[in-house]
Design a protein that fits this description.
The chain is mainly α and 154 residues long. Helices cover 72% and strands 5% of the residues.
Length: 154
């Protein structure tokens, strides 16, 4: 049974580009083994971490959050490790719930927009229904919340 894979094989298995995998190595999310020829070789554990990264990215985890989880992934199980993991997950749940609310608001707004023949008709509709003011206010409010969340994460 094969235990090490090249970057080409790892890329195919994870559906990531080689550049993305190298970037994750540069960001110290994974630590592939280097052979005498300086080629990277990926273990089963590296592939598992890459799969975690793919899923967590899909779930809107930042690289900083992913790195925090992967650090826990490499630690021995302990009460402190468990508590830290729970705190990270609680924060992410809160963040995702806010994002869902934003997405639902955006979806509701988009569903209200008619589909006219041309953009001029859409502008007339917005002006007639004061939708431009509403849209501006909505965008400002969501932008401020997103900016605050981004500031908290950096």
């Amino acid at each position: 049974m094969k235990t090490m894979w090249t970057i080409n094989e790892a890329a195919k298995m994870t559906h990531l580009s080689k550049d993305t995998i190298r970037y994750y190595e540069k960001e110290k999310l994974i630590f592939p083994e280097r052979k005498d020829n300086n080629y990277r070789f990926y273990s089963q554990n590296d592939l598992l971490k890459l799969k975690y990264i793919v899923v967590m990215k899909y779930a809107h985890f930042s690289l900083k959050e992913i790195k925090a989880f992967l650090i826990l992934f490499d630690q021995e199980l302990s009460e402190a490790c468990n508590l830290e993991g729970q705190e990270l997950l609680k924060k992410k749940i809160t963040d995702l719930e806010k994002t869902i609310v934003h997405y639902q608001s955006i979806l509701d707004l988009l569903k209200q927009i008619p589909y006219p023949e041309n953009f001029q008709e859409l502008l007339k509709y917005w002006q007639k229904n004061n939708a431009v003011h509403f849209l501006d206010h909505f965008i400002e409010a969501v932008f401020e919340e997103i900016k605050e969340e981004a500031d908290e994460n950096y």
